[in-house]
């Protein structure tokens, strides 16, 4: 059986790229192919300028220091303190003792664990354990960070804190992040681009905004509905007398009084039947279902004005 197949994927330097899929879709296998913990039977893996699939095992071991990895269940050494867990990859890289200490101190500060350096993993919360995992993964200054369901074992609040830390690391250190998840809100919170994987194949890929606002594949629609309103406004079509219009918008216009301005010199009235105004990473967006009541021609002119402002407007069907 093939766990992943026909994968052709390019991650840009410095971006946060998410791969989303259901359990068993092949996410972990795909991620492990990036550092060759899993060696694909055919094809190539290139990180930066280096084709990993051509390297000897000694060369590969060295190149792997450029690729950090964190895990759902943290994979910490339970018999070692926080400090020693973080020092471990540095000792493997044969860094001198004083340099190890200095680097560990930097990393403890970066992830906010200065007060916990001498504790053991069992004395830490889940979020703190993942901070240790992140510090350890960053120890050798990698170019790439792989995250395998890094927040799936955490509560929502801790998840958000860890996601902010990852975004911070991406922005401050310029590290490229490739993460896998089965949760759409993780993608929405920090990813620039996303690929949807199902049955070991990528079924959809694009900018998070595009994929989120216009999902094409049924699997993608499932994931998007995880964070959408479960109420389907189309149920209202037969019960309302006005025109039901769907409106999408992205960017700073989200905060402008566009609807009010469009109707104010007309006799058209409107009611919001459903609405989401939120953010994707740093981009605000809105999705509304509006009932417009009034003369049809006048409503058309209102809709044209909204389109002219850059909103996507269409009848709800
Ligand atoms: N080394 C492997 N060789 C073949 N099949 C595998 C291997 N590892 C995992 N699988 C199978 O491949 C599928 C994808 O697994 P996995 O990548 O762990 O999925 P996910 O992380 O999306 O839950 C599963 O059906 C799993 O049983
Ligand atoms: Mg997995």
From TrEMBL:
GO terms for molecular function: ATP binding. Residues 1-224 form the ABC transporter domain. SMART domains: AAA (SM00382), NIL (SM00930). SUPFAM superfamilies: ACT-like, P-loop containing nucleoside triphosphate hydrolases. InterPro entries: AAA+_ATPase, ABC_transporter-like_ATP-bd, ABC_transporter-like_CS, ACT-like_dom_sf, MetN_ABC, MetN_ABC_transporter-like, NIL_domain, P-loop_NTPase. It holds the Pfam family ABC_tran. Coiled coil: none annotated. CDD domains: ABC_MetN_methionine_transporter (cd03258). This is Methionine import ATP-binding protein MetN.
């Amino acid at each position: 059986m093939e766990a992943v197949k026909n994968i052709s994927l390019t991650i840009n330097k410095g971006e946060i790229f998410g791969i989303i899929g259901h359990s068993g879709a092949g996410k972990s296998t795909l991620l492990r192919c990036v550092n060759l913990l899993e060696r694909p039977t055919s094809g190539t893996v290139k990180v930066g300028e280096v084709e990993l699939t051509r390297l000897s095992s000694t060369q590969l071991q060295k190149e792997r220091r450029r690729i950090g990895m964190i895990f759902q269940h943290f994979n910490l050494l339970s018999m070692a303190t926080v400090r020693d867990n973080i020092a471990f990859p540095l000792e493997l890289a044969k860094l001198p003792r004083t340099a190890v200490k200095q680097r560990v101190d930097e990393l403890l500060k970066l992830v906010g664990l200065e007060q916990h350096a001498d504790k053991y993993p069992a004395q830490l919360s889940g979020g703190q354990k993942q901070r240790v995992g992140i510090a350890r993964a960053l120890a050798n200054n990698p170019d790439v960070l792989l995250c395998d369901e890094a927040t799936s074992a955490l509560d929502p609040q801790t998840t958000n804190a860890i996601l902010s830390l990852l975004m911070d690391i991406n922005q401050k250190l310029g590290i490229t992040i490739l993460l896998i998840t089965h949760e759409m809100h993780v993608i929405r919170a920090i990813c620039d681009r996303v690929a949807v994987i199902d049955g070991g194949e990528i079924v959809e890929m694009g900018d998070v905004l595009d994929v989120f606002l216009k999902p094409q594949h049924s699997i993608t629609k499932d994931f998007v509905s995880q964070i959408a309103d479960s109420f389907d406004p189309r149920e209202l079509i037969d019960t309302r007398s006005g025109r039901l219009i769907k409106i999408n918008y992205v960017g700073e216009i989200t905060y402008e009084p566009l609807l009010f301005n469009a109707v104010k010199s007309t006799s058209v009235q409107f009611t919001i039947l459903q609405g989401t105004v939120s953010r994707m990473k740093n981009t605000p967006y809105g999705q509304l279902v509006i009932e417009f009541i009034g003369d049809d021609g006048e409503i058309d002119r209102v809709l044209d004005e909204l389109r002219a402002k850059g909103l996507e407007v269409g009848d709800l069907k």
